[in-house]
Amino acid sequence: MVAQGRVLGPVPSPVVVRGRASAGSYEGSLGALDFASAASALVRIRRLKRWVYLAFATERYFAAMAIVRLGYAANAFSFVLDKARGSIVQRDTAILPVTSVDVSDTTGPGAHATFSFGARRASFRRAAGQTFHVSAAFRGLRLDAELDGEKAPPPISAVAPTEGGLFTTTEKRLLLDVRGDMTVGDDRVSLDGALAGYDYSAGFMPRHTRWKWAFLMGKVDGVPLGLNLVEGFVREAECAAFYDGKVYPLGEGRIEGKDATSPWAVGTTTGETRLDFAPLGAHADRTNLGIVRASFVQPVGLYSGAMRLGDRELRLTDVLGVTEDQSVVW
Hints:
Layout: E1 9-10, E2 16-17, E3 20-21, E4 24-27, H1 41-47, E5 48-57, E6 61-69, E7 74-82, E8 87-96, E9 101-103, E10 112-117, E11 120-126, E12 131-138, E13 141-148, E14 156-162, E15 166-184, E16 187-190, E17 195-204, E18 208-220, E19 223-231, E20 240-243, E21 246-249, E22 253-256, E23 264-268, E24 273-288, E25 293-309, E26 312-329
Parallel strand pairs: 1-4
Antiparallel strand pairs: 2-3, 4-14, 5-6, 5-17, 6-7, 7-8, 9-10, 10-11, 11-12, 12-13, 13-15, 14-15, 15-16, 15-17, 18-19, 18-26, 19-20, 20-21, 22-23, 23-24, 24-25, 25-26
């Protein structure tokens, strides 16, 4: 088994200087991002995409929501998996007016992702320090929580070049402490003691963008563990495990699977991760609007297997998470 060899440096400050970004893989928050200096208004409308994906994991539930802002369109979704029932118990998707959605160009203090449209709404905001506030109202789901990153591992941040001399960025942070609750249908669920994670991604995406993704959060022998792997697109720059207060860079993901009807195999090019994923349901979307075409499936389920982090061999059994196969022309 090959040990991790990549070292994460500190995030440059600022990441973008006069339209040019510092490509690399970093430990820490991206901070403010200057997209306006990198491209004209027309290019930003066509190619600049931003989203925030939020996930919550308790012993029984995995809940997720996303707020997505493209230059010319927007959408949001949510779902909740109940491990005890072995199925998704809530799911909602909304196509939104661009004017109803706002995703900030920073991950530092004041960072936010919000939308409000009819009865649906969601808000993710970073207050001072390491505190985040989340509230949401989707069909079948209401959520109000405070996230505390004081004891969580630092995020992994990646900056990667894209076609036309432009760039894309992402920041992944896992294992934040949670206080709050959610209501799923008529059932109120405490989120106190849950784990939370977020994916902030923003940048000038290629016209045809494709990746596979693996993400989990849970506890192994009582210690919180998180994993973020991607195959394709940004590649190993954003691949990492989060454990015992540290972020461990990993090799690029090797993710085999297509849908929620059969198991997936999840590993890395460097061999320290060997996991099986058993889907219990899926959030999926297939859209063909001519100029915009998307094929997206995100199975939700349980991870089992082994990981080596440094000199520690971890054994996972039924840890909640998702996989994803995304191919989009936008």
